[in-house]
């Protein structure tokens, strides 16, 4: 029997989505609740549209968050809908998927402690730089 | 055969997260119906918007699982020179499944000569998921996603070079 047939591939995809299902559903429930309870004006007090502080805060929140990239797009998209700036959202998205604090012990054990620490640290700082550059390029293109 | 208690214990943490949120909703339904219904309305709006996108994500994930296997990626990671960087980037983007599945393979390739920078570059590019593009474009714009992808690929190379220098 062929090891990688189409049915197996579909089942693997379904399994992948099913694994993220409770997290996605829970996140959407949580986002819905937060959007109703917390007024948009509140976010302005945290994210004041400053290039560096916004990307730093977004990067920190993304780094300590864990879960599938699917969830990060939904959370990031809804953050944007709630009036949070694109720089903060971009830093959040990038650090969510490139910094892995949850996986750090496994990464350190298999690939080495120094490598894991340096990789995550550089990924964090790069998330801020990536956010700033991406948004600046987008602004220039749309100008 | 597992009993009910064992089955509950075996549940992944994400299910506990969902259960906690559902319990919070039940409490809100008891104490503040206005917030409860407003939140549910918001929830329905998001869900109905993203269901069609998820169908497309499922199709793309199936296609990637079918055509791109760890064996296929590992084979190309052994290429040399600039070509190696190209395949590491492509490998990271096209790789799927849990990150834990990839650590042992990368550790094995490290023993066979894959340097720290290339491993870091591979891991960074795993953040770019082609199968999730429909969802990303739905929430953001294709222009934004295109720019972000290009900037992230560039950042992955910078991180690779940095790691190679820092790991000496």
Overview of the structural elements:
The complex is a heterodimer of chains A (143) and B (168). Chain A is mainly alpha-helical. Helix content of chain A is 82%, strand content 0%. In chain A, α1 (6-37) runs parallel beside α4, α3 (51-64) crosses α7 and α6 packs across α7. Chain A starts with 5 loop residues before the first helix and ends with a helix. Chain B has helices at 4-9, 13-31, 33-67, 70-76, 81-94, 99-111, 116-125, 133-139, 142-166. In chain B, α2 packs antiparallel against α3 and α5 packs parallel to α7. The N and C termini of chain B lie far apart (52 Å). The model of chain B has no long low-confidence stretch (mean pLDDT 86). The chains are: A mainly alpha (143), B mainly alpha (168).
At a glance:
The complex is a heterodimer of chains A (about 140) and B (about 170). Chain A has about 140 residues and is an all-alpha fold. Chain A has 7 helices and no strands.
Walk me through the topology.
The complex is a heterodimer of chains A (143) and B (168).
Chain A (H helix, E strand, L loop, with lengths): L5 H32 L2 H7 L4 H14 L4 H13 L4 H13 L5 H8 L1 H30 L1
Chain B lengths: L3 H6 L3 H19 L1 H35 L2 H7 L4 H14 L4 H13 L4 H10 L7 H7 L2 H25 L2
Separation of termini of chain A?
A: 56 Å
Provide the low-confidence segments of chain B as ranges.
Answer: none
Count of distinct strands of chain B:
0
Sketch the topology of chain A as an H/E string, one letter per element: HHHHHHH
Quaternary:
heterodimer
Keywords:
heterodimer, A: 143 residues, mainly alpha, B: 168 residues, elongated
